[in-house]
Amino acid sequence: MISLGIEADVIAKYKPLTQEHLKVSAAIAEPNARGQRNDMLAWFWSTSSTETSEGSDWMNEFYRVHWLRGKALRDRWSEEIVLVENEMDWTCNFFLHKSQEWVDRIVTSITDEHPGHACYAARQSRMYRQLADDGRDAFQKAKVVHEHDDE
């Protein structure tokens, strides 16, 4: 394009083509085929053309299918974020629950006059409490990083 003397603003509009850009999309022919869910359209599909796609039913269908696939992909990742954040909370709650179980065993051991058992139970309770605290701190940092990525 440069050797043809095309204007700089036109050249800036186009990116280099790679082998990956030249793959044929089978989204219209086989919309439910395996391995297509993460496929992205090549950059040239989003450049404006002198021709309108209004008259082309095939192109309208092509854009519609790819738009729906993009939306579905975004929705899956939004759902995944919700699930991971809940799993973070569930993990911390599990550790707190286990810590409380060991606290209950401390009481039982003291009542039954088993000081060795009470000492062991106290150590286990502290370990689970520490796991809950460490997990909550790490998860809170991960949530802050994720919130910054959304901006």
Largest sheet: none
How many β-strands, per DSSP?
0
Mean pLDDT: 78
Please estimate the helix content: 55-70%
* Share of residues in strands: under 5%
The rounded Rg comes to: 29 Å
* Helix-strand makeup class: mainly alpha
Shape: elongated
* Quaternary: single chain
Q: Could you spell the SSE succession in H and E letters?
A: HHH
Number of helices: 3
> Could you tell me how far the N terminus lies from the C terminus, measured between alpha carbons in angstroms?
37 Å
Low-confidence stretches: none
Question: How does this structure look, described?
Answer:
This protein has helices at residues 8-13, 57-111, 115-150. It is an all-alpha fold and 151 residues long. The longest helix has 55 residues, at 57-111. The chain is elongated, with a radius of gyration of 29 Å.
In short:
The chain has 151 residues and is mostly helical. The protein has helices spanning 8-13, 57-111, 115-150.
